[in-house]
Amino acid sequence: MGSNGAAVAEDIGNIVSLEHVNVTVPDQAQATLFYIVGLGLTRDPYMMVGLDNMWANAGEQQFHLPTRGTQVIPGHIGLVMPDLDALKQRLQRIEKPLAGTRFAWSAEADHVAATCPWGNRFRIHAPGEAFGPMQLGIPYVEFLVRPGAAAGVARFYQEIMRVPATLRQDGGVVAIVPAGRGQVLRFRETAEPIPPYDGHHIAVYIANFSSPYAALEERGLVTEELRNHQFRFQKIVDPATGETCTELEHEVRSLQHPLHGRAFVNRNPAQLITSYRRGQDALPV
């Protein structure tokens, strides 16, 4: 790799971080069992502490879990966790209280697969080179799209969001969208039926805020106007044709947003009354 190629490898594009994934849930008690007790994440102690929403911290990212109907992402969510053996034990402990739901888990060759009580699927990986320095967090979300849509998705992010998206052959065609240090969005083509879009969303911070906003506004794609240093859009269209490739609401935040860079509390889920170690309550991420 030449010096310019080495420099290009340092680029992450206009999306500087994927901050949260939002899926609504019908039951906060079951959400607590899965996300906090099972996965071992940490309920944000400062924000959304009532019964109508929960923010679950995962390293420098979060899950937002408002109490409403069920939302299920077609695809799966990637997680990195430092101790997969401890994760397996925690998931085993919640099998009985979540019996009768869609909760399931299995130990695979290179990850732990888990399904939440309502059908959202997760692949939990150990830290590794593919995820950079991440020890705990959300390195990727993979969304399923119809055959032929990935190229248009890549063009959308390249031309409208100013992100160096690429196409990859990886058991099928996948659009890879850089979303921060060690983070990507994946849009994988599938011939399987995809359920209608149900309103789940992601939140991203972008450096160049005005250009994507102008490009989306020009096309009539902005669904929530500028408010509190952010806007929203839902349709991902092919700039070459105007055809809708898929739908995924983006909560797009500028780096002026008051929550940008907010430090998240992450507990050490290995701390138990029977094996408590003084000074090890927090999990360094």
Can you lay out the helices and strands and say which pair or pack?
Layout: H1 3-8, E1 15-22, H2 28-38, E2 42-43, E3 55-58, E4 61-64, E5 75-80, H3 84-93, E6 104-107, E7 112-115, E8 121-125, E9 137-145, H4 150-159, E10 166-169, E11 173-178, E12 184-189, E13 201-206, H5 210-218, E14 222-227, E15 230-237, E16 244-254
Parallel strand pairs: 1-4, 5-8, 9-12, 13-16
Antiparallel strand pairs: 1-13, 2-3, 3-4, 5-9, 6-7, 7-8, 10-11, 11-12, 14-15, 15-16
Task: Kindly describe this structure.
With 285 residues, the protein is of the alpha+beta class. It has one domain: 2,3-Dihydroxybiphenyl 1,2-Dioxygenase, domain 1. It has 5 helices and 16 strands. The longest helix is centred in the first third of the chain and has 11 residues, at 28-38. The chain is globular, with a radius of gyration of 19 Å. It starts with a helix and ends in a 31-residue tail after the last strand.
Features:
single chain, 5 helices, 16 strands, globular, 33% strand, 2,3-Dihydroxybiphenyl 1,2-Dioxygenase, domain 1, eight-stranded mixed β-sheet, 16% helix, 285 residues, alpha+beta
